[in-house]
Amino acid sequence: xxxxxxxxxxxxxxxxxRYRGDELMTNIAAEINAVEARGEITPEVREKVYRHFGVxxxxxxxxG
Length: 64
Prior knowledge:
The chain is mainly alpha-helical. The protein has helices at residues 3-13, 21-37, 43-53.
């Protein structure tokens, strides 16, 4: 999956009008980790997606 495909998938799966704040960041981080674990994205794409969504704290499963 490309960076653009991953961003689109996450925006469709976790719309910001239904999820807010910590819940949104936790869900997005968990999904990014799950997709990477299945081998569907590379570590490079994972890092770009983390930065795109602002997932930066380890409490959300981000890179810390």
